[in-house]
Amino acid sequence: MASEDVVAKTSETAVNTIVNLAEEAKIAREGVKAPSHALLSISKSLVAGGIAGGVSRTAVAPLERLKILLQLSSLPSEVQNPHNIKYNGTIQGLKYIWKTEGLRGMFKGNGTNCARIVPNSAVKFFSYEQASKGILWLYRQQPGKEDAELTPVLRLGAGACAGIIAMSATYPMDMVRGRLTVQTEKSPRQYRGIFHALSTVLREEGPRALYKGWLPSVIGVVPYVGLNFAVYESLKDWLIKTKPLGLVSEDNEIGVITRLGCGAAAGTVGQTIAYPLDVIRRRMQMVGWKDAASVVTGDGRTKAALEYNGMVDAFRKTVRYEGFGALYKGLVPNSVKVVPSIAIAFVTYEIVKDVLGVEMRISD
Fold first, then answer.
1. Three-state DSSP class for residue 150
2. Which helix (H) or strand (E) holds 294?
3. Which pTM was predicted?
4. Residue 274 pLDDT grade (very low, low, confident, very high; cuts 50, 70, 90)
5. Range with the poorest average pLDDT among 24-28, 43-47, 143-147, 212-216
6. How many Cβ atoms are within 10 Å of 138's Cβ, its own excluded?
7. Angle between helices 152-182 and 110-140 (to 10 degrees)
8. For 354, phi and psi rounded to 5 degrees?
9. In the chain, what are the domains?
């Protein structure tokens, strides 16, 4: 009997050992797969965000260039356009660019723009996902909030964080993109491309010049990107809960057209609030570019462009010399641009993530 007990205990010990070893092996396998799976998911999210940014920005590239030309049109500089004309509207401006510079002129600066917007968009979407997770986790730590969901205010905060991170990471590219976009064949300084512009600015103006206008950009990106995400996701949530006019299917799927509408509304709200800061940022970026900051007047004298001593000074001088309306120059083409651009970016991002097999969308 004793020998049977020993055999039974030995068998039980052996079985437990085998089970434990199997469990440890399983944990080890999952531990190896988890990081690689997470890395793949991160990569897919970044790729989706980059593609979304590139597609959306290229689709509206002519309007983007016209917007920048209009923002700078009142500065005393020959670099604004080939003949220093004053555009009378969006259609007239696009026609003039097409007539004088052709198709290439319509997309001038788009290569640089995409080189900036692709990583910017990738970082922005990914940062939003991570920020929203972190903010929601912190919110749920409060008593009585254990089952809380993302609210419009929390989404606004997550979007603001994402915008600041993305803007700061790619700002030098935005700075040189602005200069490449406004230069023409008659501009004294001719940047040959992105890297030539970067090296020239570094050599002639110093590293700090690459971040001129950063403060108004960061301040502007808080309401702009924050509202984009908050309005887009809140509208989608509202549609899913109310299902108005049959816009949402019974399985809570929202169609592409409806999502485009949500993105258009989000872009309109965000850019209207943040637009004056975008104008000031663009003007501050031009300060220090000596070839763009002067113009020969009618009597043959050289006239220097306005010098700004900071964001507040730029606001003050712009309103003083040109009126409050100058802060909204280029708003019409920008509105026409932003509506499809933001909509295309959001929808493209979600579609690409579906194609790549990423389970989580931004609203999840």
1. coil
2. strand 294-296
3. 0.70
4. confident
5. 24-28
6. 11
7. 160
8. -65, -45
9. 11-356 (1.50.40.10)
